[in-house]
């Protein structure tokens, strides 16, 4: 099946879902909308929690979450109109806009680099990584960027130090390849790191304390939607901002963990606890954009696509609504209701 046909199917599915649910939403006095999520991972968790906690309804909205395969398909669905928006990587936004799209990010929910540089048990020093093989998901993607940043963090360079970047697949496949010896190192996070560490693999560098400027997930919509329906966009952002505080509140830990177990089909509470802790370290209570992080992404993208160097990162952000929610005290007020500072 071609990419264009897949996109049309996604768009058609979204429209059918909208039509079938519209009368029910009107009966409830709620505004129905469709929102994309690309995985059931921690970085995509905020829209799910908002739905489970009925936060959209609090603001007069009813969300239908549509599971899509990756940020690329999410961007296509946003452009096609089958969903209003979705969490996407900034590389996807830049790439789409270079091709003529009008995508814009209105908030950033996951920032920084929480990954660890994990290596074979016999490797102990960064300099031992010269000439070694790293696994990544794709050239230009998030794992590629985190790998480049990780190497920079320990003073290494792909070309100068003859490091090979092998396209393996998603993080699970990368971890399996490292365990099987097909690669020598990888930049991973969460439960995958804990599992491999228990098997003797070694963490050469933890990038979390370095506070490396990076935006992993942005709330993305079209500029047209933002201009025509700013009222709807603001209500969605209010629900997502409250979802962040709801998730970060210790009082809601059991609810969030149980929701994760149900959505992820997890039976082991220990694994659920690890996932919960990963979530806490990856999200921001105030999802305000960072130009410094965007410039870092542009710098990395320009290595593969020289046109990226000409992108004006300021034009990828429309922070008027999210900054207003901060400046008018909404974010702090919501945080206080959940016992957060």
Description:
- This protein has 15 helices and ten strands.
- It folds into two domains: about 5-110 and about 215-335, 3-Layer(aba) Sandwich (D-Maltodextrin-Binding Protein, domain 2); about 115-210, Periplasmic binding protein-like II (D-Maltodextrin-Binding Protein, domain 2).
- With about 350 residues, it is an alpha/beta fold.
- The model is unreliable at about 1-25 (pLDDT under 50).
- Helices cover about 50% and strands about 15% of the residues.
- Helix 1 packs across helix 4 (about 70-80), helix 10 (about 230-250) runs parallel beside helix 15 and helix 11 packs across helix 12 (about 270-280).
CATH superfamily label of the largest domain: Periplasmic binding protein-like II
Strands, total number: 10
The rough form would be described as globular
How many individual domains? Answer: 2
Order of secondary-structure elements: HEHHEHEHEEEHEHEHEEHHHHHHH
User: Mean pLDDT, rounded to whole units?
Assistant: 84
Distance between the termini: 50 Å
Strand content: 15-25%
Number of helices: 15
Q: Helical percent range? A: 40-55%
Classify the secondary structure makeup into a structural class: alpha/beta
Any idea of the CATH class of the largest domain?
Alpha Beta
Low-confidence stretches: 1-27
Major sheet characteristics: 5 strands, mixed
How is the CATH topology of the largest domain named?
D-Maltodextrin-Binding Protein, domain 2
In brief:
By secondary structure, this protein is of the alpha/beta class.
């Amino acid at each position: 099946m071609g990419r264009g046909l897949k996109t049309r199917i996604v768009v058609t599915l979204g429209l059918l879902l909208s039509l079938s649910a519209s009368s029910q939403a009107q009966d409830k006095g709620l505004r129905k909308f469709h929102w994309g999520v690309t995985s059931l991972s921690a970085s995509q968790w905020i829209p799910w929690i908002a739905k489970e906690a009925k936060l959209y309804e609090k603001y007069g909205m009813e969300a239908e979450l549509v599971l899509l395969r990756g940020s690329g398909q999410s961007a296509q669905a946003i452009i096609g109109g089958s969903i209003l928006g979705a969490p996407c990587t900034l590389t996807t936004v830049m790439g789409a806009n270079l091709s003529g799209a009008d995508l814009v990010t209105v908030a950033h929910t996951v920032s920084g680099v929480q990954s660890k540089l994990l290596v074979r048990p016999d490797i102990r020093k960064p300099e031992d990584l010269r000439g070694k093989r790293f696994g990544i998901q794709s050239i230009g993607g998030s794992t590629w960027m985190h790998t480049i940043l990780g190497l920079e963090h320990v003073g290494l360079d792909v070309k100068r130090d003859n490091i090979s970047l092998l396209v393996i697949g998603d993080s699970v496949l990368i971890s399996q390849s490292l365990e099987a010896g097909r690669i020598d190192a990888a930049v991973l996070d969460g439960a995958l790191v804990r599992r491999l560490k228990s098997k003797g693999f070694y963490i050469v560098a933890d990038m979390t304390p370095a506070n490396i400027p990076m935006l992993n997930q942005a709330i993305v919509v079209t500029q047209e939607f933002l201009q025509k329906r700013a009222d709807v966009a603001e209500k969605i952002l209010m629900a997502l901002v409250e979802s962040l505080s709801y998730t970060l509140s210790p009082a809601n830990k059991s609810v969030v963990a149980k929701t994760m177990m149900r959505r992820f089909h997890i039976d082991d509470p220990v694994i659920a606890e690890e996932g919960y802790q990963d979530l806490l370290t990856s999200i921001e209570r105030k999802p305000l954009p960072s130009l410094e992080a965007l410039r870092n992404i542009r710098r990395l993208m320009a290595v593969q696509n020289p046109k990226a160097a000409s992108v004006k990162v300021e034009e990828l952000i429309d922070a008027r609504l999210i900054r207003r929610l901060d400046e008018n005290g909404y974010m702090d007020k919501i945080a206080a209701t959940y016992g957060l500072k």
